[in-house]
Design a protein that fits this description.
Layout lengths: L1 H19 L3 E5 L1 H4 L2 H8 L6 E5 L5 H8 L5 E4 L3 E2 L5 E5 L9 E2 L1 E4 L2 E4 L6 E11 L4 E9 L4 E9 L2 E2 L1 E2 L7 E3 L3 E9 L9 E11 L4 E10 L7 E7 L5 E2 L2 E2 L2 E6 L2 E7 L5 E5 L6 E2 L4 E5 L1 H5 L3 E5 L8 H18 L4 E4 L9 H18 L3 E2 L1 H6 L6 H9 L15 H18 L2
Helix pairs in contact: 3-10, 4-6, 6-7
Length: 425
């Protein structure tokens, strides 16, 4: 009886600790993106959601730059971030409707909207026609009775003329509160494509009056007016699977904004708030938003599967991994061994194997030898045995020269899970 009771208590304690443990992020390349984190998450009880930050084709420096361990340095055209001045409208309803019409009236210093059905409500003319694609924000206080759904957005001659970037012609809400939303000119269906009014309309539920106050609308200028080309960078993190793709938010020379890439790898920086032009010296630090968010997560690091051919490459990769760990500032991390692609010759395989031995010596129990686990998981066939003898993952566990089947990813996931259990994380 005592043994059973203690066993149940131990299981409950482990489950409680699991629910209270810091979240986990997996950093890596396509081997990480391919799915082992999700498989590993499913082995926990209760199941854990692992943040997958694997991007195909990336070497250790790119991974470390995204994670925060290595600096991302950029130079912009003219060494200047352009100014941005938004057009601003504001309505406070202290004594007048300030141009608002429709089913609108004043009450206690607020705009009272009394729709009798959907889609009805209140609207105001902007005094100009805003062209397609322009970004604007709307910030306001609203009181909505239970059972009513309201939408705010742009209009053009009575038709919705804005979208939220995800197929909705505005921003919907069914609860009172203070809101700020970002929208874009142009209906999600493509027409109308311009905007000349702002509206709060009932779009669902039971008709009832609602109130709005302290409305501020800010219309950004044409994006080209506050976009600047990036003329050089110390690493291209906006890649995946051999293609230039993605974006990254962060701060450059004290200005927050978004780095984007075109299909040729040309970057631009787009500031996301008003402000004067700012000097941006060559090789200025771009501080990514993402690293700070994930810094306290338990980290699974699988870097070095790309770009390591020589002892010098291996030394650089080990330094990148060390920089990632230094950036975290805690010891909840695992480092996974690298794999050898079948296009690697014997000399390169030897470099990778030595790097794995070095990583094992450096990180001890925090090193997870998934390479050896995969070599031990062959099916016994002559083909698998030949791969193992050459230092490659057995072909029964691969989909190509290096990427893993579900069975191969499961081998990796189980090794990582087992080490997490030993660490008590």
């Amino acid at each position: 009886m005592y043994g059973f009771s203690l066993g149940v208590s131990a299981v409950r304690a482990a489950a409680i600790k699991n629910t209270m443990s810091p979240p986990v992020v997996a950093w890596g390349d396509s081997l990480t993106a391919g799915g082992y984190p999700a498989i590993a998450g499913g082995l926990f009880s209760p199941q854990r959601s692992i943040v997958n930050r694997g991007l195909g084709g990336q070497g250790s420096f790119s991974i470390a730059a995204r994670q925060g361990g290595r600096p991302l340095l950029v130079t912009v055209s003219g060494n200047i971030i352009p100014s941005r001045a938004d057009t601003v409208w504001s309505w406070n309803f202290d004594g007048s409707l300030q141009g608002w019409g429709g089913q609108a009236s004043l009450g206690n210093g607020k705009l009272v909207v009394s729709p009798n059905s959907a889609p009805n409500g209140a609207n105001v003319a902007l005094g100009q026609t805003v062209p397609n694609g322009r970004q604007f924000t709307v910030e306001f206080d609203i009181e909505i009775p239970a059972g009513l759904q309201v939408q705010v957005g742009g209009l053009s001659d009575g038709y919705w003329a804005s979208n939220n970037g995800a197929g909705v012609n505005g921003f919907k809400m069914n609860a009172s509160g203070h809101y700020k939303t970002t929208l874009y000119v142009g209906s999600s269906g493509g027409s109308p494509s311009t905007m000349n009014a702002l509206a709060f309309l009932m779009v669902g539920g039971t008709a009832a009056p609602f109130t709005v106050d302290n409305i501020v609308m800010k219309l950004a200028p044409a994006t080209a007016d506050f976009t600047v080309a990036v003329t050089s960078k110390n690493n291209n993190i906006l890649t995946s699977g051999g293609s230039f793709t993605g974006n990254a938010t962060g701060t450059l020379a004290g200005v927050h904004g978004n780095l984007t890439t075109d299909s040729n790898g040309n970057w631009t920086f787009i500031r996301d708030s008003e402000g004067p032009a700012v000097s941006c010296p060559e090789n200025s630090l771009f501080t990514l938003d993402e690293p700070a968010f994930f810094r306290n997560h338990t980290a699974w690091i699988w870097a070095g599967n790309n770009g390591v051919s020589t002892a010098s490459d291996a030394a650089a990769t080990k330094a990148d991994i060390a920089a990632m760990i230094d950036f975290m500032g805690h010891k909840r991390f695992l480092v996974l061994s690298v794999l050898a692609s079948t296009d690697a010759n014997a000399a390169r395989v030897a470099v990778l194997q030595q790097m794995n031995r070095d990583l094992a010596d450096i990180y001890g129990h925090r090193f997870v030898d998934v390479y050896s686990a995969l070599l031990s998981a062959g099916n016994g066939s002559a083909e698998d045995n030949a791969d193992i003898a050459a230092g490659y993952t057995p072909r029964s566990l691969r989909t190509d020269t290096i990427h893993l089947t579900t069975a191969g990813s499961t081998v990796v996931a189980r090794k990582v899970f087992e080490q997490m259990m030993r660490e008590g994380w």
